[in-house]
Every structure is written in structure tokens, then in C-alpha cells.
Amino acid sequence: MEIRDYKESDEKAWLYCRVVSFLDCSYYNDVKTKKDIYEHPSICLVAEEDDRIIGFIDVEIDSKDLTCNKGERGAVIWHLGVLPEYRQMKVAKQLWLSVKQRLLQLNIHYCEVWTQQDVPANQFYVSNGFVLNEEQTWLRCYISGEEGMKLLKEDLVNDMYGPEEMIIDVPKEQRDKWIDRSYRADEVRLYSTTF
What we know:
Blueprint: E1 2-5, H1 11-22, E2 42-49, E3 52-61, E4 75-82, H2 91-105, E5 110-115, H3 119-127, E6 131-132, E7 138-144, H4 145-151, H5 154-157, E8 165-171, H6 175-179, E9 184-194
Parallel strand pairs: 4-5
Antiparallel strand pairs: 1-2, 2-3, 3-4, 5-9, 6-9, 7-8, 7-9
């Protein structure tokens, strides 16, 4: 396996890898048709084996206002995934360690990642030195049909047939208020590490 820089010609394979690697987690509906282009400098790496992209990591860097670690340089992991058949081979760990080494070369010692309650992802981040920031945890609620319509003011609806689906973000302290209205609710979590 080789860890290397992402290049534009990888886009189709990167998109495929991202979709497949996210299918069995709570981000399954976050489908992209183009790879993100970042406003700030970034480190985008892929893991390749037998001319096939099997994993990826995208990290945006160098903005003091980008992370929750205000006032210091830091980085945010926007995408990290590994194809299911390669997950027990420590591909994600090698991708993270490669990024971490580059961040250290840039004198960046803080990195954060937003994830949801998926147990394997949470275990990965904790085992790699990330710590959960409870104050930055919130709920993403998915509401459909009548429940969504109730949330809209009638004067805003006009001739609209109504929402097919609404996705709203609420403080986790309001879980009891929203959980019964939602057909799905994901707890969105922030983990960070200083190294």
C-alpha cells in the first residue's frame, strides 16, 4: 500500500471510495458528486493498493478561525474513509499519521474532526489521541411530512406543497423535545487533539 498526495485525476476513484466507505455509517446520505476544493491550504492524501484508491483523508489547515481552537493555527479533518474490505489493515491510522507528520512540519499541533455517533469512528479517534468536546456536541434531526410542516410558519408556506424532509441542528440538551418528532437523529460530535 502507498500513501500519496491526491491528484485531480483521482477524483472519480476518490468519489467512489468515499461513497462506498460511508455506506455503513450515519453519513451514508452525504453523497458528493465533486471533490471539495478548500478555501485554505489543505493536505489531501489517498491510500492506494494495486492501482486502486482504498482510503482517503482531507485536512484543511492554516486558518485561525477555521477550528474551535481560536487564536492558534489548527487543522480540520473534513473527510476520512477506508473501503470496508481494507478496514482491518490500519489504513486510516496510516493516513492520519501521514497527515499528522505533515502538520508537525508546518508547526501545527491541533487538529479536530466532526463525526457522529458511529462507534468505529469514535473509537478510531479516541485511540489516536482525540478527545471528545462535550460542549460542541449537538443533534442533527431529520423530520418529514406533517412534523416538518408544523415547524414552518403558514405565511412562509404559500403555495408550497410542504417539505419532503427537513434536517435541523439543535442543542443536545433539547434531545427530549426533538427525538420523538424525528425519524432519525444523529448526535454530531467534535473530537480534537493537541500533539
